[in-house]
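Retro notes (design track)

What went well: tokenization of the new backbones is finally stable.
What didn't: we kept losing track of which sequence belonged to which structure.
Fix going forward: every design gets posted as structure first, then sequence, in one message. First example under the new rule, 274 residues:
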């Protein structure tokens, strides 16, 4: 059992960085764009000057977000190769070219650690790993054909480093695979000047974290709200905000991040030590 011996204190403030046009002239494909982190990232990229194309599984949510942001979108099933290709082709047709891709697609279904069905393992890896791989390869192939540099940022998780064995064993394993995939793709695409990194969020105030709290409430004697409020960064003493994750992903798309390659960047308020 871990003990926190530090004295009580207030949470650290949320500081929003100044918005500058660092992505002016760039075209970015945002996958998983209707989720908590994805939608915030899409909006930030637009504010920073990018033209974007969004994609996600729910057609109505894609239509609603496209209208809100003033961009076009595609429906994508990350477990289906043809669907991924259609979304990438749709983005190319819309934007003319893709300079960067952010992939926020992920599922986190709950099963007992020692009783996770094989079908669930397949579904988790189909979406979180194989879909991420295929989308990255398709976008990279386009960038190579254009003869232009580019950047790809994937969403992994602190679970890919520390693991959560209670009910998210398959999810944790899939995110560890994304971290390794990021490293290998970075090596494979270095000669083409295509930079690949991933971010490892933790304790982010999103509907997904709320779903985790809701599930834990069914197996331990605590309320959903109590669990959710406890799932915070020890250093920040609060939840990480989606915009704080989006800011890191946005930076990794820029030229300033050129020497940061194949990395799994923790965005969890200091909870993961490596």
């Amino acid at each position: 059992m871990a003990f926190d011996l530090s004295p009580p204190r207030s949470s650290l403030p949320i500081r929003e960085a100044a918005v500058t046009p660092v992505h002016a002239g760039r075209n970015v494909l945002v996958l998983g764009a209707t989720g908590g982190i994805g939608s915030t990232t899409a909006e930030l990229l637009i504010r920073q000057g990018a033209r974007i194309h969004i994609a996600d599984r729910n057609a109505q949510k894609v239509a609603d977000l496209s209208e809100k942001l003033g961009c076009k979108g595609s429906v994508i099933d990350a477990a289906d190769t043809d669907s991924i290709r259609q979304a990438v082709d749709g983005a190319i047709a819309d934007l003319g070219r893709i300079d960067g891709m952010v992939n926020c697609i992920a599922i986190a279904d709950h099963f007992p650690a020692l009783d996770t069905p094989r079908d669930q393992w397949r579904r988790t890896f189909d979406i979180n790993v194989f879909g991420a791989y295929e989308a990255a390869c398709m976008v990279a192939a386009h960038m190579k054909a254009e003869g232009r540099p580019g950047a790809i940022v994937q969403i992994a998780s602190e679970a890919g480093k520390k693991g959560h064995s209670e009910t998210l064993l398959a999810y944790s394993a899939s995110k560890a695979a994304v971290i390794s995939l990021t490293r290998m793709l970075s090596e494979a695409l270095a000669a083409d000047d295509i930079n690949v990194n991933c971010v490892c969020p933790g304790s982010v105030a999103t509907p997904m974290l709320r779903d985790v709290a809701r599930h834990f409430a069914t197996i331990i004697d605590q309320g959903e709200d109590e669990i959710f409020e406890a799932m915070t960064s020890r250093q920040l003493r609060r939840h990480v905000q989606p915009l704080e994750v989006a800011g890191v992903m946005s930076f990794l798309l820029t030229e300033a991040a050129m020497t940061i390659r194949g990395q799994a960047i923790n965005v969890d308020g200091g909870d993961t030590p490596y």
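Added context from the reviewer: The CA atoms of residues 183 and 262 lie 4 Å apart.
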